[in-house]
């Protein structure tokens, strides 16, 4: 039976479109990322003028944030409910937060102290509608290989408690996890001695690029799907100890983004911890322009 003209045009048009669309678009597996910002980047501006800073950040095109700091009762001096309302007023969401969980495994703290704080974090995160509770730091006293092995069990315990609370737990790396000690690194211990179902990973791409002997992409290959959060932080061209605005440094984020599906990343957060020229808000504005145009 002969095809109608409309059928022919429709089918050939679809065929032509499939020829020009990239394979990852044809597969329908494109993840629509929001433009995110780790609020540590603008910590001083937030302290000086919380409302005005949120207004500027939203104006730059940021859609979501990763919070940091929670004393068990307040975010940025506000109750979880009031802070959520303020974020809503500026059209911002928060999907993840850095919480001071590490302080509750130091000398003088008990398992009950840790449970109490984790439960407070879960409650606060629910009010903000966050999905992730992130353990962001380790005190220098905790960075030996023996301590990493002990902490792996603690991570599993916290991860299980967070999961029962309806959220997901993740660990954020710096540089010290990649320091070799007697043929081992803390990061390898975290990967192999924690339960992937309970402990996800937030990949700080600057520190992975700066301190690790292998690239972020190679780490993603080791445990695909586990690197659910990323920090998009660039490295200064002249001094690798300094951060810089995204796109002005030496990290090849386009190459890393090509492995996003393998990594399993769900949320991306621009971050810059130092070297603000001329100031932090100017830096996050320029980073937003680059990330929106080149990475998203």
Descriptive notes:
- The protein is an alpha/beta fold and 296 residues long.
- The protein is 44% helix and 14% strand.
- The protein has 13 helices and 10 strands.
- The protein has helices spanning 5-20, 23-26, 43-48, 50-59, 80-89, 111-128, 145-164, 186-193, 205-211, 216-222, 253-257, 260-263, 280-295, and strands at residues 36-38, 64-68, 93-98, 132-135, 168-172, 200-204, 229-232, 234-235, 243-244, 267-270.
- The strands form 2 sheets. It has an 8-stranded parallel barrel with strand order 1-2-3-4-5-6-7-10, surrounded by 5 helices.
- Helix 5 packs parallel to helix 6 and helix 7 (145-164) packs across helix 8 (186-193).
- The longest helix has 20 residues, at 145-164.
- The radius of gyration is 21 Å and the shape is globular.
- Mean pLDDT is 91; it is low at 1-29.
